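Blinded run. Sample ID left blank on purpose so nobody reads anything into the name before looking at the predicted structure. Input follows.
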Amino acid sequence: MKKILSKEEKTFILKELNKYKNPDAVIIEILKFVQKRLRWISLDTIKEISKIISVPASKIDSIATFYNQIFRRPVGKNIIKYCDGVVCYINGYEKIEAELSNYLKIQPGNTTKDKKFTLIPICCLGNCHNSPTIMINENLFSNVTKKSIITILDNII
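Blinded prediction complete.
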């Protein structure tokens, strides 16, 4: 198996592991940290983490799979999350979703061929009072419209 984790990541994992009596408690933090560099968590990555923290890979995999913010397949350079919760539904997220899909020429859950964008529906972005809402990477955009989305994306491209 090819080594995936860097020395920095291994050091982080061991440091976090020492903070807790139960290694299960640190799995999410490890996955988040590693994902920041790798952009997604492969099965080989999980196996390597498993060896370091002595937790079965199946357990780490089940946690990584449960949390939708841990990506289990490669994602684009820019991750676009749009809220499809109740309030965004009432305020027209479906038009936003359709415009994003049309503009990027991908369906929700997919990545553009040039690997620039991944489009992901999410149940809530915690910005209901300003819905519809999208998040691109770490940036939140409120009260988005079909027109404002194009402007936002054009500024990224």
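Unblinding after everyone has recorded impressions. The mean pLDDT is 94.
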